[in-house]
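Internal tracking record. Fields below are filled automatically when a chain is submitted to the structure queue. Please do not edit lines marked as system-generated. If the sequence contains nonstandard residues, flag them in the REMARKS field before resubmitting.
Queue: standard
Priority: normal
Entity type: single polypeptide chain
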Amino acid sequence: MLQFRLLKGQRRPALILSILLLKNKIPHALIFTGIEGVGKKTAAKIFAMACNCKSNNLQELIRLKVLGNSYRKFDKGQLEAVEPCGKCKSCRKILSGNHPDVVYIEPSGHAIKIDQIRLLSNDLAMRPYEARLRVVIIDGAQYMNSEGSNALLKLLEEPPDKTILILIVPKAVDLFSTISSRCQQVRFNPILQKEIKNLLFEKHALNSDMANLISVLANGSYSKAIAMIDHTKDKINLINYRNWVINVFDQYLCEVNQKKMQPAWQIRRLLVFASKLSESKKLLLDAMEIISLWLRDIIIYNYCSEKVVNKDYIDKIKDASDKIEVKSLLLMVEAVQTAMKNIQKNANVKLTIEILLIRLIKVL
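SYSTEM-GENERATED OUTPUT FOLLOWS
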């Protein structure tokens, strides 16, 4: 069942959305921000259901004027009153994606184009067909091109009646400031590692070692954890893959840092490693997370060793932290994150990895 209180690790945004409904102070536009896979799209769907549910007690509470204008604490019963039932005709239509007044927009190709926003504007010029409040969910709003952004800005300047727009983005700064300034932001947090681990136990019956590894590599994203589970279904042993990446990468760093290899051998080893990493794009992103966490562990070891994630490699982490300067490590983390962003934007995988490893050599 989809309800605000069941959103894992998102108590604050769930409370904010519930109170907006309870106070009958729903803005014409919201921005949901946070990393991929923390429940932003699910929360948008729950909000659309709650606005239009035929069975919740929201409208009755508003009619009886039990909701004041002060930001007092609401009791549990009132908060539960806005939860969608999930069973009425309206809720079922929204759940199935068939409600005429709940509109979903996502990138067409690599961008949300002006034609999509123009079509939306034409639809919003008419009254809602059956909803109390029409909801437009723009997922991946950061991919709007400049023409699309300007067209959306006109909608925000003259918001349609009985309509709310929900923009889903990683960060508010990914949008034009003229757009973000006209929306109320609701920030979603990365999901805690222990909560992801519990979900993996409860819903996917993973063993302890695998659940722990995936919950760490997921880096706060439940959808990323699910993608990693799919790798294990493809008979890929993620634990062995993680061990291979760490051992090869650590050996590579140590040899380069200690000048044990001639430049020609460095390049040769680099190309072999890059070729292996780039065999699978899905696994490559996992490898980037593994490398990023490895570098993070080396950085924090001397400051807060109990926060190290890869505890089974603590000796190697200590050795690397003694030999590599923090400034160099920070530059390496930046290089890895840049490579990850380029891969996610469909850059040439093998070339991106080769460039990354060359940058790491230069840093050392």
